[in-house]
Amino acid sequence: MEKYIDRVQIFANKFGSISYIKAITDGVSAVIPAIIIGSLYTLLGNIQFQPYLDFLESTGIKSYLSIPNNTTMGIISILLTFTVAYNFAHNFKQDGVSAGIISVCSFILLIPFELLESGSKAIPVVWLGAQGMFMAMIVGVITGKLFVVMKEKNMEIKMPENVPPATVRAFSAIIPGFIIITLFLIIHIGLEKTPFGTFPQLVSTLIQTPLSGIGNSVWAVALIWLLSNFVWFFGIHGIVVVSVVNPILISIDLDNLEKTSAGLEATQIIGKNFTNVYGGMTGAGIIMGLIILMTFFAKSKQYRTLGRLSIVPDIFSIAEPAIFGTPIVLNLVLIIPFMLIPTISTIVAFFLTKAGILPILSGIQLPWSMPVILQGFLLGGWRVALYQAALLVFSALAYYPFFKVLDQRAFSIENGEIEAD
What we know:
Strand order of the largest sheet: 1-2
Largest sheet: 2 strands, antiparallel
Shape: globular
Distance between the termini: 18 Å
Number of strands: 2
Number of helices: 20
Order of helices and strands: HHHHHHHEEHHHHHHHHHHHHH
Low-confidence stretches: none
Helix content: 55-70%
């Protein structure tokens, strides 16, 4: 078992350290503040309380609340292409700022400009927001990789030693930047001769649309949650699995948010919010049900104390105290409900949404630590909040027969009835 655990851990570490995966993951993490800030302003303009909405309309405040959204999530692809390239170069001890700037220039170069009636040229804003995220990731990793390779091969302008460091960095990026931008210019020109026409259309047709299909596949999402909770058994954080699909899920949410912000209906059921609300509320394994049992129903002092220590952090989705304190790691008893509860919940929630019983969740990106039930209410209204409340009850009931076995054993050991292993 130890050898097997070591192999899984080695694989997880190697996968997570792949330069391309790490750059994208770190890049997406870097733009989360902008996503959350824009989402909060969208939330402020769309709280479903009619007197409040009437007040926003009558005072003209509503139109102002949309401005921060346009300047955060409306340019999320520009921010992302910078942060991905920056992190790629930075991870190789190279100038991340220069790589990020070159990446932004390359990204905009690939977007087809529109000619206005006035004769001016304009950038279609549709590619600057959520719809351009996949293109931003691709441009970011390509730029970062090429920049690092050329810098490592000393393809740069050398400056005298007495020149200020900022000037040295600027001039050393000129040759890599010229080559990278020229490469993307050739790609831009070459694609004009193909049926795709533009790079955004190429990415949308070959990559973005197929990957976004996960938004219609409840089985894919259920499998993701099954695997992410399974690896906890070996002491491996489930983020190793979830982080692979997070960029896809977030882009789906942002697409829904663009629709709702424009007064249209959200169309895609599954996104990052869906997995958070129905599969990951209160942390991995929807472990709050187990914590409730430990806090209020445990006979053993061991689990009763652990429950009291874990319940407040878990309200804010900090589940590690309970996961490692119980522990879930190498626990053949608790790993069964730990894996199955989130999986069952996501499947049930999908079909309830499909049937119209639950609403499609808003694409608003809330902080991951938003308390359960309040999270559901803000993203989907009272029906989602009620589902989360019912899910807590289901979680406690599902954990109960497994927990009862462990609690009785701990209680017997504390009373000297049996000896600990």
